[in-house]
Amino acid sequence: MHYGYRSSQAVDSESTYKKSRYGGFGAEAKRRIMLGTFVFSAEYYTKAQKQRRLIRDKTKELFTEYDFIIVPTAPTPAFPLGQTSKDPIASYLADIFTVQSSLCGFPAISLPVVTNKGGIFRPTIFGETFC
């Protein structure tokens, strides 16, 4: 525990590990770790790998006809700076559109966008609007 979070309430080596591991993660990180541990340790892992293969195959099939798959990075605008959603499902769904590329192992990029007067979203990089 030379680097990273170390609990100030630890009194011996065992409590150092337990309290530091418990206290070093936020609620959302703990939730995702527990969910991942459950899925990985259960028989669901094999089923999940089959679903992953299906998603990868369908995505590869799309790339035989198209050069790009364009989807928003998130289904809603970002949470205000310094605030997060109190709803864990909303937090999980905030990055749902980024999952496909991660599952498939394909590269992805997120571009900031602006809305013009007609309400049309346009990709923007360094203040330059495209399309």
Brief digest:
Helix content is 46%, strand content 8%. With 131 residues, the chain is mainly alpha-helical.
Description:
- There is one protein chain.
- The protein has 131 residues and is mainly alpha-helical.
- Helix content is 46%, strand content 8%.
- The chain contains five helices and three strands; from the N terminus they run H-H-H-H-H-E-E-E.
- A three-stranded antiparallel sheet has the order 1-2-3, with no helix packed on it.
- The radius of gyration is 20 Å and the shape is extended.
Topology:
Layout: H1 13-23, H2 27-41, H3 44-65, H4 88-93, H5 99-104, E1 113-115, E2 121-125, E3 128-129
Antiparallel strand pairs: 1-2, 2-3
Q: What's the order of the H and E elements? A: HHHHHEEE
Q: Can you count the helices?
A: 5
Report on the biggest sheet. 3 strands, antiparallel
Count all strands and give the number.
3
Structural classification:
mainly alpha
Please give the share of residues in helix. 40-55%
User: Which percent band covers the strand fraction?
Assistant: 5-15%
**What is Rg?**
20 Å
Instruction: Categorize the overall geometry.
Output: extended
Unreliable parts: none
How far apart the termini lie comes to: 50 Å
- Spatially, the strands of the biggest sheet line up as 1-2-3
Mean pLDDT, all residues: 76
